[in-house]
């Protein structure tokens, strides 16, 4: 390895994009997965940026930090000296930055805030909000200093699957409507990035019917928009179970041998639980098959019994680093 060169990060082979968009139905744990992926990609001295755009401060809660400002700041150290920075994109601050960048309205732009003009603009034109959010993500992804990328990867904790297509396609619509000027140029740049090999949209799901159906729908929508889908990430999975039918008589004998109550009510209730559990696992197997048939690489993450804290994030990051 040459002097100054970063060591190889095996995860870069499995996760080759520069911009990783993480979406999923609400409640599937997409923010936790996005955070874990940022840790994975920051291993071996790399630097990643973890971005949220929904104003929920979910990243701060996961890492136990103060609420994130509109400022990129270090929130974690990854394996072997890597670094994760985080940013909560605020539409108002992004608009002020946009006005200063393209129209040189630094002080004048800030004065608009006093009159409520910025809130008014993003309210009457809801699509403007998403244009500003995706524009900031694009800027961070492509930013360079001394001809070197500032971030090796950017991970976006994106809106849920129900509106991911609209969120990612808004700049393409703006580019189509705008004839000339900075808005058209900026929108085309974002739209092109989101449709390039630099981007991958990963969909987080659970082995439950509604999240799986939303995953199928989101993949179809993104494919129709020519936005590249990366991996399907199945969160909260449990180890394989050797399914077997258990009779009430067998349960009674087992309970008696263990010195536990083996009355009729106990045995009947336990037998019903076993039957329901086996039915549930059979449904999970069927849903897993549906996901495999989508034809995208599948990654399964374990159910964390203690919830998702920093230790749990490290467990998820390690599993993501082992993806084929």
TrEMBL record:
<dbReference type="InterPro" id="IPR027417">
    <property type="entry name" value="P-loop_NTPase"/>
</dbReference>
<dbReference type="InterPro" id="IPR016300">
    <property type="entry name" value="ATPase_ArsA/GET3"/>
</dbReference>
<dbReference type="GO" id="GO:0005524">
    <property type="term" value="F:ATP binding"/>
</dbReference>
<dbReference type="Pfam" id="PF02374">
    <property type="entry name" value="ArsA_ATPase"/>
</dbReference>
<dbReference type="InterPro" id="IPR025723">
    <property type="entry name" value="ArsA/GET3_ATPase-like"/>
</dbReference>
<feature type="domain" description="ArsA/GET3 Anion-transporting ATPase-like">
    <location>
        <begin position="20"/>
        <end position="176"/>
    </location>
</feature>
<protein>
    <submittedName>
        <fullName>Anion-transporting ArsA/GET3 family ATPase</fullName>
    </submittedName>
</protein>
<dbReference type="GO" id="GO:0016887">
    <property type="term" value="F:ATP hydrolysis activity"/>
</dbReference>
């Amino acid at each position: 390895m040459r002097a100054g060169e970063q060591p190889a990060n095996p995860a870069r082979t499995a996760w080759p994009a520069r911009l990783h968009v993480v979406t999923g139905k609400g409640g599937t744990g997409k923010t936790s997965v996005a955070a874990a992926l940022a840790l994975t990609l920051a291993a071996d001295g790399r630097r990643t940026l973890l971005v949220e755009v929904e104003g929920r401060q979910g990243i701060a809660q996961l890492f136990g930090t103060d609420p994130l400002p509109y400022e990129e700041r270090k929130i974690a150290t990854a394996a072997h000296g890597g670094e994760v920075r985080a940013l909560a994109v605020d539409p108002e601050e992004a608009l002020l930055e946009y006005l200063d960048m393209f129209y040189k309205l630094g002080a004048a732009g800030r004065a608009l805030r006093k009159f409520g003009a910025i809130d008014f603009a993003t309210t009457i034109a809801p699509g403007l909000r998403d244009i500003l959010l995706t524009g900031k993500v694009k800027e961070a992804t492509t930013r360079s200093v001394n001809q070197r990328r500032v971030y090796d990867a950017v991970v976006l904790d994106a809106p849920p699957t129900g509106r991911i297509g609209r969120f990612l396609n808004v700049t393409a619509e703006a580019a189509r409507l705008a004839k000339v000027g900075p808005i058209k140029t900026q929108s085309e740049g974002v739209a092109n990035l989101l449709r390039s090999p630099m981007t991958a949209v990963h969909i987080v799901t659970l082995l439950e019917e509604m999240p799986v159906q939303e995953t199928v729908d989101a993949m179809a929508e993104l494919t129709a928009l020519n936005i590249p889908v990366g991996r399907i990430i199945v969160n909260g999975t449990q180890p394989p179970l050797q399914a077997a039918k258990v009779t009430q008589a067998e349960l009674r004998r087992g309970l008696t041998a263990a010195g536990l109550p083996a009355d009729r009510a106990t045995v009947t209730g336990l037998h019903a639980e076993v039957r329901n559990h086996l039915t549930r696992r059979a449904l999970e197997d069927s849903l897993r098959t549906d996901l495999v048939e989508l034809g995208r690489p599948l990654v399964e993450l374990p159910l964390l019994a203690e919830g998702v804290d920093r230790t749990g994030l490290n467990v998820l990051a390690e599993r993501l680093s082992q993806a084929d």
